[in-house]
Specification:
Length: 142
């Protein structure tokens, strides 16, 4: 089975605020144009975590294995600041997608990285060996 991928960027506090609002700054327009070109949308990591917790709280947290870990993360001021500046590109509601799409997104975003408009650009694969895994819910200390 081939691995799936996700493209993530880290941006300045100012650009994060602009991306999370209805701002039409040049950088926001440029990033959104790249996302649209590839049929993706930009999701702030903090907002994704908050939405997950809200959904879990509405539906019952027992069916959301990462609820406790995620809730602790969005309750930690230091981690909040980190995750407010982190964004992932989703294909519809899918968080991971083909290598071809990830490579195309990465290529277009690299220009923004080289020009200093974004601070970090990463291509993450779904191989558990390459990524830290969330804590298990059975007997693990969060």
């Amino acid at each position: 089975m081939p691995w799936l991928y996700q493209i993530r960027i880290r941006v300045s506090k100012e650009l994060s605020e602009a991306l999370r609002t209805t701002s039409q700054s040049a950088e926001v327009i440029e990033i959104n144009a790249i996302a649209q070109k590839h049929g993706t949308r930009l999701v702030c990591t903090f907002d994704g975590f908050s939405d997950y917790c809200a959904e879990a709280e509405q539906n019952g947290t027992e069916d959301y294995p990462l609820y406790d870990w995620t809730k602790q993360t969005i309750s930690n001021p230091e981690k909040v600041q980190k995750h407010l500046r982190s964004f992932a590109f989703y294909k519809g509601d899918e968080q991971v997608y083909s290598l071809a799409l990830a490579d195309a997104l990465f290529f277009d975003l690299e220009i923004l990285l080289k020009s200093g408009k974004i601070e970090e650009l990463n291509k993450i694969d779904s191989n558990p060996k390459n990524n830290p895994q969330p804590p298990t819910t059975e007997g693990s200390a969060l």
